[in-house]
Amino acid sequence: MISLAPYTASAALDERRNSSLAVGAGALLSLFMLLGLRWPYLWLGVAAVIGVVGLLWAARYTVKHPIWLACAMLLIEVGASLNFFDESVRPFLRYPLLFLFCLPVLPTLWRDPMALRGGFRLYLIYFALALFSVTYSIAPFYSLGRVVGSVLLFGGVYTVSQNIKDEQDMRRLFGVLWVACCVILAGVAASWVLLPSDLAWQLPNQWSDDSVVRFVGFLNSSNQVGEVALPTIATGMLFWKAATRRVRIAIAASIALAILFAVMADSRSSLAAVVIGLVALTFDRYRWRAAVAWLLLLALAVGGASLLSPDRLEYLNRGDMMTLTGRTDIWRFTLSKIKESPILGYGYEVEGQIFQDRHFPLRDKMWDQGPYIALHSGYLTRAAGLGVPSLLLWLFFILRPMVGIFRGVPDYFRIRDAILIGALPVLLLNIDESAASDCRYTVGLLLTFVWCIAERSRLLAEDSRRLRGLAEGGLLAANAKGG
User: Fold this and answer.
1) Residues in CB range of 174: below 8 A, 6 or more apart
2) In this structure, how many other beta carbons lie within 10 angstroms of the beta carbon of residue 330?
3) d(CA 338, CA 389)
4) Which end of the chain is more exposed for a tag (fewer CB within 10 A), N or C?
């Protein structure tokens, strides 16, 4: 836009000053380019300095604008999973970033009285049990690191959720999470184009007995690609109502891209969980009309599958579905180990270490990774880590506020849709994947955000009932006194 304001002497002075700064910056950049030709490592130093300054600025920005802490936490969790780094390097990337971004907001958790009420108090008790498990854990340093990381992330999630005042704030939060998912999708897309095939694609292994080559992009596993698709779809749909027309086009494109990558990664569990969430969401809104529409879609899908060639059908039915592609084999052994220590478990999130037992039947190289191995069931993971009572405690305080929303508890933030399209798919995915962990990874963060907002709504409803009861009691007392 052309300004019609008069051109003053001060404006001319500002223009000369800006021109001088631009010329100086250009000269400095040219000098660095010349020096970089002689000493290439200088570029690494400059990049490191710029990166550190950028991180410090971003951390300070999230303190002033807590809603963007959600974006930072999600990117940290995914960034630590890049397949360029092995397990010995990832902690040195993840934990310093968690301390940088999440530690400044922890005082909010301790000072807020709501943190010591209801499900928040029970979650802190759960973390106390996790910290106690370090004393008997079969991998104590690993348990301690996981507890510290989970507490930092929980403090960040809690701080962000406390800044949600109404439905508009809630949708803005999911918009921020959607932006983070888009950044990840952009990285996955770039890795699809730029990375060599031996890095971007995962070859079948002997354990899976699967002939399908799966896309991993720049992530650590193909399952993580599918787990990125779930929050992308959920946050995009939840942000849709508050988005502009152009942003809605971007949301639709991101959802399509996320589904494409999930199909390329052969992540059937994530896609099935999303479909069930969509069925639940549409049925909650449209009742029998949604049921009829989904039945018609199911009939069309079955009819279309019957027309496929035998080769295509073999692809759809690949793997040993009776054992969920081998998962039931490790679940049986895990259940036997849980029976040996049902009360305390073996230590917080060290479940993979139990496979070092000499009675474990599988002896492939992949089982030598100790606590880094997943059980492919988040519920068994909690039972093996902290015992069956802790699993039941976790289920109680996680499900109570979300079930309460559908049983008439006031929904102050309109979180109902997020429960169906966000939390429900994660809880279902948690059956055959270690998805619903304590704020970890994309799906764990999504679940915890939805839960925090639902729990706040439940506690606010309790406060409202208590105040109404006090008011009614005071009114009765006044009437009795007046009578």
Assistant:
1) 234, 235, 238, 239, 418
2) 24
3) 12
4) N
The residue assigned the tokens 């004393």 is: 135
CA 348 to CA 336: how far, in whole Å? 18
In the beta sheet, which residues pair with residue 202? Answer: 214
SS3 214: strand
Task: Say how far residue 167 (Cα) sits from the centre of its chain.
Answer: 21
DSSP letter for each residue of 136-164: T-SSHHHHHHHHHHHHHHHHHHHHHHHT-
Quick one: which of 441, 389, 464, 469 has its CA closest to 231?
A: 441
SS3 202: strand
Cβ-based neighbours of 112, under 8 Å, separated by 6 or more = 158, 162
Helices (H), 201-325: 222-239, 245-264, 268-286, 288-306, 310-316
Q: How many CB atoms lie within 10 A of CB 189?
A: 14
Q: Is 29 exposed, middle or buried (0-12, 13-18, 19+ CB in 10 A)?
A: exposed
Between CA 234 and CA 228 the distance in angstroms is 10
How far apart are the C-alpha atoms of 146 and 385, rounded to whole Å?
12
- The CA distance from 420 to 280, in Å, is 6
Q: What is the pLDDT of residues 156-194, one digit of tens each?
A: 999 999 989 999 999 999 999 999 999 999 999 988 988
The tokens of 102 are what?
């999440």
Q: Which residues of 405-436 are buried (b: 16+ CB within 10 A; e: fewer)?
A: beeebebbbbbbbbbbbbbbbbbbbbbbbbbb
Q: Which residues are registered as beta bridge partners of 214?
A: 202
Contacts of 306 (CB under 8 A, 6+ apart): none
pLDDT digits (tens, 9 = 90+) for 289-321: 888 888 898 888 777 766 666 665 555 555 554
User: How much is the pLDDT for 209?
Assistant: 47
Q: Is 181 left (phi over 0), alpha (psi -120 to 50) or beta?
A: alpha
pTM of the model: 0.85
Q: Match 């030709």 to its residue by tokens.
A: 37
**To which residue do tokens 């399952």 refer?**
223
Q: Find, among 136, 133, 161, the residue nearest to 147 by Cα.
A: 133
Tokens of 420: 């169906």
How far apart are the C-alpha atoms of 442 and 75, rounded to whole Å?
9
Q: What does the block give as tokens for 70?
A: 């959600």
How is the chain split into domains, by residue range?
50-306+334-465
How far is residue 446's CA from residue 440's CA, in Å, rounded to a whole number? 9
Question: What would the two tokens of residue 65 be?
Answer: 């604008």
